[in-house]
Amino acid sequence: MRDERLFPLFAGLETLTGVGPKLTPLLQKLVGGTTVWDLLLHLPDRWLDRRVRESFADTVAGEIATVQGEVHAYHQPFNDRSPHRVQLVDSSGFLTLAFFRADPRWMKSQFPVGAMRIVSGKVEEYRGERQITHPDFVIDPAKGEAPPIVEPIYPLTAGLTNRRVHTLILQALQHVPADLPEWADKHLVAQKGWPAFHDALVWLHDPPAYDEDRFALARERLAYDEALARESAFALAQAARRLRPAPIIKAPPSAVNRLIDALPYRPTGAQMRAAADISSDMTRGYPMRRLLQGDVGSGKTLVAAFAAVEAAAAGFQSVFMAPTEVLARQQFDTLDTLLSPLGYTVAALSGRDRGAAREATLMGLADGSIQIAAGTHALFQEAVSFRNLGLIIVDEQHRFGVSDRMKLAGKADSPHMLVMSATPIPRTLAQAVHGDLDVSILDEKPPGRKPVETRAVPDTRLEDVIEAIGRALKRGERAFWVCPRVDVDDDDSSAVARHAALADELNVKAGLVHGRMKPAEKDAALEDFRTGKTRILVATTVIEVGVDVPEATIMVIERAEGFGLAQLHQLRGRVGRGDKPAFCILLYRPPLGETARERLDTLRRTEDGFEIAEADFRLRGAGDVLGVRQAGATDYRVIDLAKHGALLEIARKDAEAVLAGDPDRKGQRWQALRIARELLTPKLAQGPESSS
């Protein structure tokens, strides 16, 4: 139940004085919410120092300044395009105020000669003189008025002014209780020099003085509060999960050893460590929730196969769920090759299956004769049942919604779940994205995986690139050609135009895949390329993840300067999977900007996905790197991951320590954390246990 002190904060925006039917939707759009608290979480992105300067001489061109002077003269404009000019004077000289299209009567009433005025605005240099055009504030000091000492500046949308938003936020600030308990560790607060929660809000929205260090500390304090709220919610969810019984999957070591002995290579140390993590999780009697994160080609499928073998040897079924038909078929082929010779029964199930074959698969899953299945969304359809499902493995987990995973989990009683991702993210972001999962990272590549030679080539050499691809196709190799867009009439770098041009110039049957095609059409085109019916595939970034064609040796990325680093790396990972040398051609349109040049140079220098992700984070920021909000886990309101990422780990340890020291959740600090979660954790991230 919500603490009654918070009731005014969760009242609707329309409860604020001056907010009517027209203003309410504008504010809701601006703050991304409907409550007074949502308005208070709309933080300033900068502050203006409005203190009155000693003299005009203290102003700097290009900066905001507040000054006081005597009205020396008023000059009306010569024509409609000229401004009204008011000349102020002080001990250091003159300053001109310029007003375009002003009412002369208003000007004379506002600026009588000899009167003192305080004005604030951006100072410019005009014909050797200081000038402020359309000041933000014009104040008569004789009336006892003054501009704000500090003015917070907020992000705005059409129809709203900064002054109006700030006025409403000051009204909302009065609803924040001053007597809320301290939920952060008091020693940490003292060590960091943070203000109290209420004081932090005041310093951001209504600061008593201009102090950039205090602004930063106030923002950092609220960022930590948000991190702590999230991490305590994650800790609760994990604690609740540990109370749910799950299959105890414990297989003899010989089961996995047989698979290792059958491999033509030795697994990497990272693969064995991850396999040990998973094996340990499955013996604990509560549901595993683990992320297996590994770069392109790091061997995630083999680690997952180890887990499936353990489950089968212990009498449980496993399913591999992939986001597309092509990936599901590829996964089936890999698993069938690895495991069928060892006596395990592997099957595939997707939307393509019909008739007797489908019925046989459904029957095998229901009676348990099929031990391991690979498939798509078809796996969690109502007609599908399992005899003893113990392990769910979700590939490219970011492409599935939470509901998809839960539907499949609903096919059994608390099955273990392993989710896999080939999208490396900076280690500084891992806790932000995967706070509710245990994480195993594959940071080694299997032996024999050849590096991909990466070259940046200007598009003035397009014909040379096409000729090189023609020679490779004659040698029996295959090539990808990625374009930034589907079809633009006046741009030959679109997929449709490039497909037609390459088919004509190379005199080959070329494949085409893009996002506007129906799923069945995309799957058919990918399958034709995989089986060699087509030898060059022109595509947009829909082939970024998962397509495994060992014969593909060349990846051309057209207009590469427009892609993100992580995306370029994922695309490059589609080649170099066979025994022949592989190449990635970054075809760019000169001249290159500084950021684009750094991006392409980074890709040429390294194939380490985590190093590339860190560079991408530095160049583009967290939002662009992550691309989409991940199940509510990263839609932070206060935290700037580039600045506050380190707070997440501190908050995680703090939340776990509080819960461990107060398992009954009766202590004062845990009760205070309930309030923090109410204020700073989205309902989606809170989960059903978060009210405890």
UniProtKB/TrEMBL annotation:
Nucleotide-binding is among the record's keywords: yes
Keyword hit for DNA repair: yes
Stretches assigned to the Helicase ATP-binding domain: 281-442
CDD domains reported for this sequence: RecG_wedge_OBF (cd04488)
Keywords: ATP-binding, DNA damage, DNA repair, DNA-binding, Helicase, Hydrolase, Nucleotide-binding
PROSITE patterns in the cross-refs: HELICASE_ATP_BIND_1 (PS51192), HELICASE_CTER (PS51194)
Domain Helicase C-terminal, chain residue ranges per copy: 461-618
GO biological process assignments: DNA repair
Name of the protein: Probable DNA 3'-5' helicase RecG
SMART domains xrefs: DEXDc, HELICc
UniProt cross-references to InterPro entries, sorted A to Z: DEAD/DEAH_box_helicase_dom, Helicase_ATP-bd, Helicase_C-like, NA-bd_OB-fold, P-loop_NTPase, RecG/Mfd, RecG_dom3_C, RecG_wedge
GO molecular function, one term: ATP binding
